[in-house]
Amino acid sequence: METNQPIDSYSGYLHLDRLLDCQRPRSGQAEQAVHDEMLFIITHQSCELWFKQILHDMRSVADILHDVPSGSSLPDTAVVRSRRIAAVVRHLTDQCGILETMDPCDYADFRGLLYPISAFQSVQFRKIEILFGVRREQQVLYDGYAHSSRIPVADRDELRRMEEEPTLFDRVQSWLERLPFLEVGGYSFRRAYQDAVRRMLGREREAIRENEAFSALEKQKYLVETSTVEERFDTLFDPERYREIAATGRRRFSHRAMLAALFIMVYHDRPRLQTSRRLLDALIDIDEALALWRYHHALMAHRMIGEKIGSGGSSGFHYLKSTAENRRVYTDLTALATYLIPRTDRPALDPHVLHMLDGEISP
Ligand code: HEM
What we know:
2 strands
């Protein structure tokens, strides 16, 4: 559609004639319209605009990660844009609060006109999920069919193509795998960290045995707990055990990527690693923000339609609530805290690695 507005005006630049002509309540115009359908339309439209911004930034972060050479510092723009994605998602969650000013009775007055329309069919939302790294298995819907069955045929091919391409998750993983500080000369971060953990646990065992305040039974209990902690660490240090855990779906990153992420967490006070650390944080932020949006959206749906099924045919609230936990992507990064030890127990960095970190030299 052509616009008549000159491009040098505010409304011309923003194509406001078209934008403000896109709100067409199904309940009718003027006095026949259900007043709050306008709010419903505008909220969805503004969400779709923000989805567009999220995709714009997410693609760019994936490209930056793809292009950054091994051993080079990460450009700060990757962090700035990732943090912005999280901020936008939080804003979408806040927007739910505006829509919740609508009375469920008012929603009931026009909801019947919407069938079979549902935001289930939001192509941009599916693109965000795919690009962020939600896997096909996670995307299976309540009735066993994939999302694509709800998406207009014309858009399905594009989504299928996207599923074949590298996602942001893939880019993060290969960027982590390229981190050059894990094995340098005779130095191995994995071995050094494992030794440090053993020393720490050895001290803890000794302290338990020598503590006269504990009974024999208590000592035994605490020693068993220490062994459980050691086993948990071993799942990270032993590549074979790690692969077994990954095969169950409890870990998704490759072993090397996971160790690299831990290295960044542990030594993030080195100026060279600070941007990388902030990126890992921002990814956790986005994952958390999306989970919170999903949960708030589920609560909003519950409040508006109770236990009715959704206009797209899902079980409604129960389906939506389940996605808040099932579609997390970066839980490996949150799990890293399991493997942190006090600063005083951390192994000192190998001098060559230190030099690489501080001197910006290539390995
Ligand atoms: C009155 C407010 C709303 C209600 C009652 C509601 C209800 C629902 C329901 C029941 C579903 C599940 C699919 C279905 O069976 O239709 C759904 C999915 C969805 N809704 Fe809403 N929704 C509301 C507002 C919004 C808004 C403002 C957005 C922002 C774009 C939105 C985005 C989505 C998305 C992206 C999905 C797909 C979620 C997924 O499959 O993981 N919804 N909605």
